[in-house]
Specification:
The structure is a single chain. The protein is mainly β. The protein has three helices and 28 strands. The protein has helices at 162-167, 344-347, 379-387, and strands spanning 3-18, 23-39, 49-58, 68-73, 79-83, 89-96, 98-105, 111-119, 124-131, 139-143, 156-160, 185-188, 206-209, 218-221, 224-225, 243-251, 263-268, 276-285, 301-315, 319-332, 336-340, 397-401, 406-420, 423-436, 447-448, 451-466, 469-484, 486-487. It has a nine-stranded antiparallel β-sheet with strand order 1-2-27-26-24-23-20-19-18, with no helix packed on it. A five-stranded mixed β-sheet has the order 5-4-7-8-10, with no helix packed on it. A hairpin with a 2-residue loop joins strand 14 and strand 15 (224-225). The radius of gyration is 30 Å and the shape is elongated.
């Protein structure tokens, strides 16, 4: 039986500086984990991997010892082999996500081929393979869906696959919106700062699952922690074209994971033996928008999201690469705000239209006819009045577009290398930079200017020297840097 010894070292730092104009927060975390000689578990750490376990039996239902079980990746031709134990069981741990063909063979039995076994992030596929009496040259091919129910654990989880990520409509191409497809999940601003577009200071809105606080959730990309410690929300996440899938574990998952809320495990795409690439451009403007109810016309709004992906082999069957770029430019807003401003007469000091008596602070008596002499205006007041527009139409209100411009760039690079069928390593880097505007219900030109700078580097090495020994080495480094500053004319 396999054995496990776990040694882990982690360091977390939160650095806060403040000045007259800005507040900056940065979080850096490093984690170096070594797993050697592990007691058999169906899942080890939340890398972008899953597991395949199962039992090989004969036609009568008796388990078969010594059968050779092989799992072959359809994308990279990676082949993993093992032998069933005395109870007929087999297990492949830390299997890269993807589609596999699983076969079982033993002298005196026909070879069984199970096609299209889909390994999902953080999930365990439990197979039961039945061998028929015959010769090994005879093959029985089984083509069917992966069992939808995970019988090896009581975890409650939802997996969003690559097709759903690519094809479901996402306003702004934020994959976090798909997390609410999980039963019991909903967006919330409680205990979080919200986003600049909604008047908040965070990179993403919070998500409450099963009534728990949004700050309890744990976000991981390819096994590395990726959480914004300033708000305890998800940082800027990779775009949908760079994600293979992600899994949301909402309850009953292993105590090895941190925090008490949901566990969101995202897996990035990797290259394959075929060269593939894509270019995209998503464009939106005010032409097809409806006029806001309180506005007399549509406001200027343009959003461009463009980029591309490319992936393929560096060395066929050995080394693969994948890269992704997305750039977002948004100007204007489809939403409006209503401001109460001074009329032309009030700017000149004529407050006779108001029922309230204006008192002279020097004499203590009322101003004549509620009119303030221009000589009594302060220079600072005059400069502030110049920032405010005149009312539009009757009354003293004006409708303006919200100030929520946004510049967003993100990059992802990943390399996978297979030293042998039983030894592979993957290295990835994800970086993003967001400069946004936060509307403060102020005149044009006055707004908050939050920016978010994120980086994640992770390395995973998996070595299986024998069917009952697995050695996993993982390293991850993440940084989230948030700057909050005011912007004035």
């Amino acid at each position: 039986m396999p054995f496990v010894l776990i040694y882990a070292c982690a360091c977390n730092m939160l650095y806060i500086t403040s000045s007259k104009r800005d507040v900056a927060m940065t979080h850096k975390s490093m984690c170096l984990v070594f797993l050697v000689f592990a007691f058999f578990v169906t899942q080890l750490f939340s890398q972008s991997t899953g597991s395949i376990i199962g039992t090989v039996a004969d036609a009568t239902g008796l388990t078969v010892q010594g059968a050779r079980v092989e799992a072959r990746s359809a994308a990279t031709s990676l082949i993993m082999t093992t032998t069933t134990g005395v109870d007929g069981s087999f297990h492949f741990l830390q299997v890269p996500v993807g589609v596999y063909d699983v076969s079982a063979s033993l002298s005196g039995f026909q070879t069984l081929d199970r096609r299209g076994v889909d390994v999902l992030t953080g999930r365990t596929v439990d197979l039961r393979l039945a061998l028929e009496v015959g010769t090994m040259t005879e093959h029985i091919e089984v083509i069917g869906l992966t069992p939808p129910v995970q019988t090896s654990s009581a975890e409650v989880q939802e997996t969003i696959d690559s097709r759903a990520i690519r094809e479901l409509p996402l306003n702004g191409r934020n994959p976090l919106q798909l997390v609410i497809l999980t039963p019991g999940a909903s967006f919330t601003r409680a205990a979080t700062f919200g986003t600049p577009e909604t008047g908040g200071f965070g990179p993403n809105n919070g998500i409450s699952i099963n009534g728990l606080q949004a700050t309890d959730n744990n976000y991981r990309i390819d096994g590395g922690d990726f959480n914004d410690t300033a708000t305890n929300a998800a940082p800027d996440l990779p775009n949908p074209d760079s994600l293979l899938e992600f899994t949301v574990k909402s309850s009953n998952y292993s105590a090895q994971y941190a925090r008490a809320g949901a566990l969101v495990q995202l897996s990035t795409r990797s290259g394959s033996n075929e060269l593939h690439g894509s270019l995209f451009e998503f464009f939106r403007n005010q032409k097809l928008d409806a006029r806001p109810f309180f506005a007399d016309e549509k406001k200027h709004f343009v959003r461009n999201q463009f980029g591309g992906t490319v992936g393929g082999p560096i060395s066929r069957d050995k080394t693969f690469f994948f890269g992704s770029v997305q750039v977002t430019r948004r100007r204007g807003s489809a939403n409006v705000k209503t401001l109460t401003v001074a009329t032309a007469a009030e700017r000149a000091g004529d407050l006779s239209g108001r029922s309230r008596v204006v008192v002279d602070p020097l004499s203590g008596g009322p101003f004549l006819n509620n009119q303030i002499p221009s000589a009594r205006f302060s220079s600072l007041t005059q400069k502030l009045l110049d920032l405010y527009p005149l009312p539009s139409g009757a009354g003293n209100t004006i409708v303006l577009a919200r100030q929520v411009d946004r510049d967003d760039e993100q990059f992802l690079a990943r390399v996978d290398h297979y030293f042998a069928d039983n030894h592979q390593i993957d290295v990835r880097w994800f970086g993003s930079n967001v400069d946004a505007q936060r509307d403060t219900n102020s005149p044009t030109g006055v707004f908050g200017l939050p920016s978010f700078d994120n980086d994640l580097i992770s390395v995973n090495d998996v070595y299986t020297p024998s069917s009952n020994l697995l050695i996993t080495t993982s390293f991850s480094y993440s940084k989230t840097f948030t700057t909050l500053a005011p912007q004035t004319p």
